[in-house]
Design goal:
Length: 312
């Protein structure tokens, strides 16, 4: 297991370097320039050159990247163009609001999806199964931005029950009412995916010989379902949850922008609009490292969920 973990961590480093090269290249090939954001509509070339020198953009792109990479290796991802603080500081300041949304949304997704998938598998081809399948297909086809706007229009504009924007709190934790709609959008959007995975894996598990053996031994259906079938069927869900972590940033960009939530998603949107290169690079590397490490944690969890799995 130790060798497996060391090898996986060793693979993460070159992948992050390659990703940083790709993102850096794409940023410099994109139209526009960061200095235009800090200048008036009518500016001289001397003024633009002064801003580029201040931002460190007057050097050749290769030298800019090597300078950034050398500092990043030491843990310094540079200064932001538009926030006046270090990239690390601005990312950490936006991390907790996003984690609140993601952890609550993941909890909502799993709490709803697992029972729905299990019931759908146990009642295969019944009206209940068809109803759950139809609901999941509808959920899979519904865009996050449309669902978010629909909730806002219904519960904020027409009914006035829920606040539409912000966290509603200056403290560490967001106000409960402000969390309802963002968590609902992120959590419910993942339920169809998770529920279909659980249903499919449960059907495979229930058809295995060890399930028939357990039934022949006189075990109750509840014990067979929970302690035998579901324990194995949950493995694909763990995999899917690990893969869905790659959607952490892409998913919250839409939700946080609509609900004006001060997290990583809104930070990414602001950085792209302002062409804040250090923030875009730092945020991309941070997100990629998070996804890779979370994927490693999921692989390790496999050995505890299913003792038959061993890594060498």
């Amino acid at each position: 297991m130790t060798r497996f973990i060391v090898n996986r961590i060793a693979q993460i480093i070159p992948l992050l370097v390659l990703l940083s090269v790709f993102i850096f290249t794409m940023m410099h090939l994109a139209p526009g320039s960061p200095e235009s954001f800090y200048l008036t509509d009518h500016y001289t070339e001397e003024q633009a050159e002064a801003v580029r020198e201040k931002l460190g953009l007057n050097e050749p792109p290769v030298r800019q990247y090597l300078t950034w990479l050398g500092a990043a290796i030491r843990g310094d991802f540079g200064q932001t163009f538009s926030y006046g603080v270090s990239v690390t500081e601005v990312i950490l300041s936006r991390l907790w609001p996003t984690l609140q949304l993601q952890l609550l949304a993941l909890s909502v997704s799993v709490i709803i999806a697992v029972p729905a998938g299990v019931i759908s598998a146990l009642r295969r081809n019944s009206r209940l199964d068809h109803s759950i399948t139809t609901a999941t297909l509808f959920g899979l086809s519904m865009p996050d931005f449309w669902f978010a706007l629909l909730l806002m229009l219904t519960f904020s504009v027409h009914l006035g029950w829920l606040p539409a924007f912000g966290t509603g709190s200056e403290g560490l934790f967001a106000a409960p009412l402000n969390l309802v709609m963002p968590v609902a959008v992120l959590g419910l959007s993942a339920v169809p995916w998770y529920a279909r995975v659980v249903r499919s894996s449960m059907l495979d598990s229930l058809a295995e010989d060890y399930i028939l053996t357990a039934a022949a031994k006189g075990l109750t259906p509840t014990r067979i379902t929970i302690h035998h079938a579901l324990r194995i069927a949950i493995l694909p869900l763990v995999t899917v949850i690990g893969l869905s972590m790659a959607r952490v940033l892409s998913g919250v960009i839409v939700v946080e922008t609509i609900f004006v939530w001060p997290g990583l998603g809104q930070l990414a949107w602001e950085a792209v609009i302002r062409q804040d290169y250090p923030v875009i690079l730092g945020l991309t590397i941070f997100t990629a490292a998070f996804v890779m490490i979370f994927s490693l944690i999921v692989d390790i969890l496999y050995t505890y969920i299913d003792p038959r799995i061993r890594y060498v």
